[in-house]
Amino acid sequence: xxxxxxxxxxxxxxxxxxxxxxxxxxxxxxxxxxxxxxxxxxxxxxxxxxxxxxxxxxxxxxxxxxxxxxxxxxxxxxxxxxxxxxxxxxxxxxxxxxxxxxxxxxxxxxxxxxxxxxxxxxxxxxxxxxxxxxxxxxxxxxxxxxxxxxxxxxxxxxxxxxxxxxxxxx
Length: 170
What we know:
Elements: H1 2-24, E1 27-29, E2 35-37, H2 39-49, H3 52-70, H4 76-96, H5 101-127, H6 130-160, H7 162-165
């Protein structure tokens, strides 16, 4: 029992680092406020592989650290909540929905990106008002498309490989 918790902790730290690196190193600035990156694909992976709170924590910490490293410190608290919420949505839809994987994978990825788009819209609406929040929907939508596509690809690969599939069945 104790060994399982250690493995989960180590895997959580590793995936938090993957989220951070995918956010920072693989980031492309967008017009307006923000950037597109591959971090959301890793956030989706956190929810599917680690599950509920472990996945949410890894996604939240890794993405918030990415914001800090990129100089978007004002976004870090919102990112922590939003990315953790994304991982929880993935967990609930991918691991708990009684449907075939070919349906659960895209549903989980798309729903988690809807959480991201809505979360940042509400945050920016409160912080900057509609003049910033509304135009940023386009950039966040583009980020969502990239993240959902990468998440679908990653989960499909894991789900199709017999040895890797075990990571998704815990």
